[in-house]
């Protein structure tokens, strides 16, 4: 059996993905499995059960990151890492993140079926709080693991109910007592749905991203004057919603006019949020991303200027804070080439591209050779209940992942990806 003929079991992969989607399942086929929720805990318990049944060791660090280790022949060699996250957006999709973990699980099972012992340890990871929808910022577990986020500061993060990250991590029973550090890593792969329309439109099965775009997040607070909607003349209002409407419109236009930078207003929270009260306050968020960092920062500067200008024109005050900033992540050229060549060996049409979404690999890439494998998102939809990827494409991506794992895990001592 040659490396490129090693295949995963599509039926088993589908079963794993279907069963894990029950944790936090929504009526319309999606998933609400917020980080450190009961649903997240239950999914974690199921993953642990499956991986341990497949012969893996489980390690849990102080951020709740779960590492499932399949021992290799030479445990002194740097291991190969793969995986993703199992938390979701509210009313999110059933493939985002979890596909990368289940793809790793299926690779372990396929290796067991074939009776293959790899030279190096294979580690499949479940990173804590990638989405950042309940506790912001996202990619929290991988960011602390990489030394880029402070663990105690992350423990202090609160959700909208005032519950802390650290407290919830302890409540669900996934606050590890010690850290697990398998570094140096030989290679890192993250298998993921594309979350965009490109692969489907180009009729390609495998996406081979050269890297992840840079990212800037803002939190903006507009302060106006609350007042009665009836008696207050239009020309005497300091309306936070009006100020926001002007800002949001120009933010969209700035993104539209840019060179491949996207700008998104996501959360909007007016106060008091009553139909007959002029809003005195409004909090909203901005998400800016692009491959070219210079152009992205130019867009950010234009957005900041526009927000302040519209606040002044509308008679409101504004406080704009950049709450998260991540540099773009160019992937390891050798691993990118390996993914492309492996897809070719398997007869799968592949496309070079970039990742417009951020992933845990953005942090792991900073200290370990890394690359990602994408499969199509039907209709380009993600972060929504309608998110869908065909079972055939899920299996095709898992086959590419499996064979890249075999190649890198069997690299002899001394082989490195520069």
UniProtKB/TrEMBL annotation:
Residues 216-312 form the Peptidase M20 dimerisation domain. Keywords: Hydrolase. GO terms for molecular function: hydrolase activity. It comes from the Bacteria. Belongs to the peptidase M20 family. This is Zn-dependent hydrolase.
